[in-house]
């Protein structure tokens, strides 16, 4: 584990006593404008065993207030475990992806909504489901004669047997492994998380766009 530089600050208890606490980090993303920020600390409060810190976004066009939720690591030392919900920012996709799989975009953004509201157990399963629609709709576009078979087959087998694009196969396969971790009791990839799953889905989207858009130009300009 990387060495953590703890930050020391004062927090108020419910009877207005000041106590000194340490935190591992401040939020580095604003839940309202969704920019990378250095959160401005306004005030801190002890809340039962936990700590709550009020922050302000330093971005001039935003300046919103939000709350960082902290849980105890050890005595008087806390770790950031979540932030209060702000505005939902939906992920935008290209026309190519919108044409291939509008349902993928819908499910992905529901998972994103869950994640932005700290429902991380639900969002992981949602990303896994979104991936299944993306890959299957892509395969149905390329092999419409196999549609019924593709719909029924487990996602892992679809990728192994039907995806010919090597780059897509590599990333989609790994996305499936991490996606399955989100749905099962035991985690196989303990050092990977939702961020890795989302990155692999992004890469799958990228390779599908490259392939389909290149194909469109080849057909339009033989
Ligand atoms: Zn902001």
What does this structure look like?
With 222 residues, the protein is an alpha+beta fold. It folds into two domains: 7-83, no CATH class; 95-220. Helices cover 46% and strands 20% of the residues. The protein has helices at residues 95-100, 102-116, 120-142, 147-152, 155-162, 166-183, 194-220; strands spanning 7-12, 18-23, 40-47, 50-56, 65-74, 77-83. It has a six-stranded mixed β-sheet, with no helix packed on it. Strand 3 and strand 4 form a beta hairpin. The radius of gyration is 22 Å and the shape is elongated. The termini are far apart. The relative contact order is 0.09. The protein binds zinc ion. Zinc ion binds next to loops.
Q: Which ranges are low-confidence, i.e. pLDDT below 50, for 5 or more consecutive residues?
A: none
Count every helix, treating DSSP H or I runs of 4 or more residues as helices.
7
Average pLDDT score = 94
How large, in whole angstroms, is the Cα Rg? 22 Å
Q: How many discrete domains? A: 2
Largest sheet: 6 strands, mixed
Strand percentage lies at 15-25%
Question: What is the strand arrangement across the widest sheet?
Answer: 1-2-6-5-4-3
What is this entry, summarized?
With 222 residues, the protein is of the alpha+beta class. The chain is 46% helix and 20% strand. It has two domains: 7-83, no CATH class; 95-220.
